[in-house]
Specification:
The structure holds 2 protein chains of 2 kinds. By secondary structure, chain A is of the alpha/beta class. Chain A contains 15 helices and 18 strands. Chain B has 2 domains: 53 residues, no CATH class; 75 residues, no CATH class. The chains are: A alpha/beta, B alpha+beta.
Amino acid sequence: MNSNHIVENLKKEIENFSLQLKVEKVGQVLEVFDGIAKVSGLSDIKSSEMVVFQNGVVGVALNLEEDTVGVIILGDFSKIKEGDEVKTTGRILEVPVSNSILGRVVNAVGVPVDGKGTIKTDKTYPIEKVAPGVVTRQSVSEPVATGIKVIDAIIPVGRGQRELIIGDRQTGKTAIAIDTILNQKGQNLICVYVSIGQKDSKLRKIEARLEEGGAMNYTVIVSASASEPAAMSYVAPYTGVSIAEYFMDQGKDVLVIYDDLSKHAVAYREISLLLRRPPGREAYPGDVFYLHSRLLERACRRNAKYGGGSITAFPIVETQAGDVSAYIPTNVISITDGQIFLETDLFYKGIRPAVNVGLSVSRVGSSAQIKAMKKVAGTLKLDLAQFRELEAFAQFGSDLDESTKRQLERGKRAVEVLKQLQYAPIKIENQIVTLYALTKGFMDDVSLEKIKEFEAGLIEYSERNAKVFYKEIAESKMWTEKGEEQLKKAITDFKSSFQKAKS
Amino acid sequence: MTVISNNDIARAIYLVSKDKSRAEQSVISGKIVKFLFKKRMLSKASDILSRLNVIINKEEGRVVAKVSSAKKLDHQSKTYLEHILKKRYAAKEIFLDENLDEKLLGGLKIRVNDEVIDLSVRNKIKKLQEYLTKSA
């Protein structure tokens, strides 16, 4: 490109430029503190309207008072001075969206922070939107394959569902979310991971892990780190769901993970208190419930008439010492369609993922579960429930009758089978094979320590020797008698060779 | 408890002293000062006064327009400007508060209350810059 060409281009651009001068409403900054600005003037401003400060930093007007406006500052507030000019924009806060945002890390206002250059965008989406109405919705019918046995079998999640992941610190909440993202390769599910108030080092680790697993191709990370002002943390989940809505509007299925909403509530509490809104229980403002309900209500499965697509939400909430009856956990539990409850005790017993099967539920997911899985999971659930009931008697050992002993042994094996390593998602077909072998009693005479080994070997063996079964599952989501026969044969064959090799 | 704002006081002052004769007004003014003293609000007097000013201007249809320009405006453009502003704000009177600002390079910038109409050359150049850098 020579200089002439550039000049010509420039000329053309300048000719195309039409100056649109508008009447602007301006105000003056009265005071700035802790990410909040009090601004005078700005008559006719709308609630949650975007404003622009003199140095280009944007803010959102949250408090509209008689002659001042309380604005949260999204960005560096150290350069905003008293007396600075503030302009209204007439729009509510927006994020730039485009398909090229996939694989990127952006901050709460959609600006890339991964050092990979600017993102070319053609559209902006408002961060606050009214959730899709009743007529546009459809009930959940497609599964989200998490690749985690306990979840896929007992607490299945459907596309469009809101499933809470709840538990104490260090119980593997994020691990479940990351495993789910890693398992979505080739599943036509775009993932948005929203990190709220997390350590930057943790986020970096997650990003590297996703990159390594090839998951960044279909993932967007929205980051509001702990070092950024509370306003960024407050906005981040809405940004995440707006990005998700952009993809849903193209008829795609999206999974959004909010990690975590307790920090989001804390950030909102900080903002509310600074804006002098009256505090309520645990000093949270009166509208924390609405804060989360309007966010999670935007998760939906839209029917084909309105363009299809879905947003599945995995909110994460951290509890303190297993207390699920605190304010935020109860709120979010009541909003979501079920929860995955993780426990410290189980975690240290070596049951990982530390899912408490008794307290975890999925209220709508079972209708999305594939038929074959439903069949094996039904008996598994029963086995585990009976096991929990009898567990207290386990120490009596020899005094128990035959059937109780059998149930105890089955339960122990079920717990063992449901253990799973991190970053090792398992294909749904393989999960069905293992659970089939378990529930039909093929594992009852395998010793507990050998279960994991048996499972790995079995999967490998049946993948080779029960091809009909695998094909049937892939095609019709259910097995026929022929496939079942073949699988049974494969399991018995493998078992005899397994036991021979050991003895 | 309802809080009485400075704005409320200014409005009250305006209403009591409206349509009163000179003599009456001076009595009222004395009472107002006494009232403010009693309520320990004399320190807020300047704020109340400026609010009173705004209220009076609004009620009497007076509009103060702050006009900044790079060069001094001639008489003709001033009357034209007054005419236009009168129509826009449905005002009876327009006060032009003129300022000279070399940085505008050319054109005018008009400010009425919190509304700004920026017709300066500097703003136009800025807009052009935004447009050119955005499309690239």
